[in-house]
Amino acid sequence: MRVAAVGIGGAGGRIVERLWQDNERRETTYLGAACAVDTDTEALDELDALPDDRRHAFGLSETNGAGTNGDRTNGTAAIEDERLEVRRPIDQLVTSDIDALVLVAGLAGGTGSGATANIADALREIYTIPVYCLSVLPAGRDDEAAANTIQALRALEATVDGQILFDNEAWLGSGQTVETAAETLNETVVTRLGALFAAGEATASDAVGQSVVDASEIINTLSDSGFTTLGYASQDLQADDGGSDGTVIDQLKNRFLGDNSDDVDEIEAYNAVETTLRRAVRGKLTAQCELDSVDRALAVFAGPPAWLIRDAVTDGRRWLTEELQSPEVRSGDMPTPDRDTLSVLVVLSGVTELPRLVELKTLVDESE
Ligand SMILES: Nc1nc2c(ncn2[C@@H]2O[C@H](COP(=O)(O)OP(=O)(O)OP(=O)(O)O)[C@@H](O)[C@H]2O)c(=O)[nH]1
Chief subcellular site (predicted)? Predict the structure, then answer.
């Protein structure tokens, strides 16, 4: 699926910059356009990987170019006068081949919380393609951060076609702060988003004999009610199963040419697909949720074609349907002939029960 990504505020800009880098590294291009908008000019200056003309400051008269320091009202005031000015550079990037717009923001910050729904609204006035938001939830128990987040989630719920949640709290190691762990957090979320968007862009030549995910399946999964959370797991593949079989030449060939199809043991491949799927669903999600509150799901199996055993994918999908007790489960392949990794991305959508959201709401209620 080809997307245009717009980072709003500090976290939004940094994550979009990372998406930009991820997209450049992949064989499949999924990022049709990207830019960052912020009330903090210093934060924009630090986004080295994004070209200068993809970074735009707004709300300078409200914030003096120094951000809002967590003041949601200030973030809202900053965008209200400049909706059209902020929309214009985004407009210039959106071409007819873009399938969806993806806004990215940390909802605890004044800029991310105050401006994101407003920007979504401005885009919806002219675009008929879906508008999604990657909504980053704060770590910790700060009242103001919680209040900004809950208000932004509500405003976005009324505006966007779907929100993918990423919970910093769930991904911080003990003793870490968002500042010190930002690189790792952003890499985690971008690995999953990249896997999702690239899946819908697999080329036909890679896909012979495979059932490839297309953009409409991603859109049908993400859109509509409830939140989305992403699960992901990957496994390095060893075509010679431990190194005891196969000549050194074969092993070198497999390693450097990715030519492992001759050696793939079907049972080993079947087990690898099944195990990786279970790890993706039962491992840490971008935001933890009650699995029985999932309404729709999509599983994307990526790996060398010889490892994407049809029966394993079909059985995996059946297992997922039972696990989630959800009738609407889609699946597809993303053949990556030149890689020796198998990965599974699981998109869980229409989710209504997320413990972290309950925690944040309780914090807000207690502080009122
Ligand atoms: N995952 C991740 N979260 C971040 C990052 N930077 C900040 N955050 C989170 O996002 C929240 C908002 O921070 P920013 O995005 O810098 O704030 P902003 O939207 O620019 O708003 P103001 O600076 O208050 O005007 C923080 O409270 C953190 O929870 C980042 O690089 N990655």
Answer: cytoplasm
Domain 3-201 in CATH 3.40.50.1440? The answer is yes
Residue with the smallest CA separation from ligand 1 atom 9 is 106
Count of H-run helices and E-run strands, the chain: 14, 10
Residues carrying CATH 3.40.50.1440, the chain: 3-201
* Residue 243: pLDDT band with limits 50, 70, 90: very low
- Alpha carbon of 170 to ligand 1 centroid (Å): 16
Q: Which amino acid is located at 310 in the chain?
A: R
What pLDDT was estimated at residue 257?
Answer: 47
Can you tell me which atom of ligand 1 is nearest the CA of 183? 31
CATH architecture for the domain at 228-351: 2-Layer Sandwich (3.30)
18, 166, 178, 185: residue to mutate for ligand 1 pocket, most atoms within 8 A of CB: 178
Asked casually if ipTM beats, i.e. exceeds, 0.95, the reply is yes
Residues 236, 262: Cα–Cα separation, whole Å: 17
What pTM does this model have?
0.93
Rounded distance from Cα 137 to ligand 1 centre (Å) = 9
C-alpha 346/C-alpha 278 separation (Å) is 10
Ligand 1 atom with the shortest distance to the CA of 171: 1
